[in-house]
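[job 4471] stage=fold_predict status=RUNNING
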Amino acid sequence: MAVTVATGYGKIAGKEEGGVLTFQGIPFAAPPIGDRRWLPPQPPQPWSDTLPTVAFSASAMQNPLPSQIGELIGIATGEISEDCLYLNVWTPAIDSKSRPVMVWIHGGGNTVGSASQPRFNGAHLAREGDVVIVTVNYRLGAFGFLHLPELGASGNEALLDQVAALQWVRQEIEQFGGEAGNITVFGQSAGGFDIAELMALPAAAGCFDKAIPMSGSITKQVSAEEAMRTAQYFIEEFGALDALRTVPAHSILDFQQRLMTERAADGVRFGPVRDGSVICQDAATGIGNGTWCRDMPLLIGTTQNEATLFTIFNPSYENLDDEGLEKRAAGILGDRVKEAISRYRQMLGRDLPVTDSVDLMAAMSTDRMFRMPAIRTAELHSSHTPQTWMYLFDYPSPAESGKLKACHSLDIPFIFGTCGSDSMRPFCGVGTEVDKLSKVMMSTYIAFAGNSDPGNDLLPDWPRYHVDRRATMRLGLDCRIEDAPLDDVRELWS
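[job 4471] inference complete, writing C-alpha cells
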C-alpha cells in the first residue's frame, strides 16, 4: 500500500510493510557532485511530481571491508555513488501523534558503511516503541573529510552532512508522526565519535535533544597540518588543484585506498578536522564546557571486548608473544608498559582461565580506543549535566568459537531488533536469551528517547553516572549495576 507525505520540498510516496510505514531514499541535500564536490551540503531542489521513496539510495563512495569481517557484522555496501545524501524513515503512522524521534548515524571508520544496511532496519524499533526511526547517509573518506580550503572544503563536510540531515528532521518529521522537539541522535563507532563532535559543534547547536554515542566518544581530531598534508598527496596525484573537481570518483577512491595503505605510518586518516572554522576546539573542551550540550541527556557506553573484532582477524597477531606484546604496548603506555601488562593480566585472570598476549593486547586496545574515552566523555558531561548514564555491553558472541566475546558492533542488531535475521544469527546466536536481551536493549533505547532516562521495567534501578560512584549498567545475560567495572586499570590511562 502506497502512502504519501507532503514535505517542504515536494510530495513523497512510501510504502506500508508489516504495520510500519517506510520511506527510503529521501533527499535531504542536493547531490554533492560536479561543482558541489567537497562543498558543504546544499538544500535539495524542490520537485513538482510525487517522488517515489520505496528503494534505498546508493551508499557513499567507499571500498568494501574485508569480506570476513563485513559479512560477519553485516556491513553490506551495494551500489555506491557520490550522489548519496539521502535518509530513510520508519514510522508507525502518519497522524498528529507526536512520537519520539531517533536518528541513526552509522559507523565504519568514516570510510565505509551506509544507512541502508539490513541490520539497521528501523521497522522493529518503530513498531516496538511507537517511535519514528531515521537512518542517514553522509559522505565518507576523502569525499567527506578532505581539507581543501582553496576549493571551499573545510574537511568537515561529512559532519555538515549529518547536521543537514538533522536539520531536515527538525523541519519535516512532524509530517511523519514525529515530535520535532524530541530528537535523539544515536550512532556507533565512527557514528559515536561523530556524535561527540556534534555535541561540541556550533553548526549542530539546536539540531538534537539527546545523544547516545555507542563505542565512540571524544577522540583526537585530525589537525589542520595533517589534513593539509593528506590533501597535498591528492593534488600531486591528480596534477592540479582544479582537476580535483573533475577527476572520476572511482579514481579518487582508488587513490584513497592506496594512500591509507602506503601512508598510514605518516598519519593519513579521515575524520573531523580542526580546521579553525567549522571546528575550532577539541570536542573534549566543548563537551566539558557544555556550551552546546549542557542539559542534554546522555547515554554512553561500549562493549566489553571491542578490539577482539580487530585482533581475531588480523594475521599479525597470530603469533604474538610476550615480547611482541610489550613492544606494541610500549607505543601506547610508554615506560608504564610492564606495570600495565601485569595489571591487565591480573584483571583478565579473574574471568579467563588462561590469558595469552592477544587477549591482553585486545583488552588494552579496547580501553585505549573506546572504553576510556567513553568514561572521560561521561566525566566531562556529568560535571554540568546530571542526566548522564553509562553502560557496558557484555554479551559474548558465539562466532569464531566464542573468541570474539562482546566485540565491537555486536550490540547493534540487539538494539535494532535484527539479531534474529538470517545474516545476524551467526554473530548474535539464537534462543530465548538472545530474544530477551534484544527486548531489553530496545526497551532501554526507547525509554531514553521517550523519557530522557534509560530506566525501564526490564532492568534494575539505574543510577546516573558520577565520578564519585561510576555506576554502570552491565547489559547482557545478567543485567545489573556495577560501580566502576574493570576499574583496576583506569588510572593507567589518566
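[job 4471] summary: The mean pLDDT is 95.
[job 4471] exit 0
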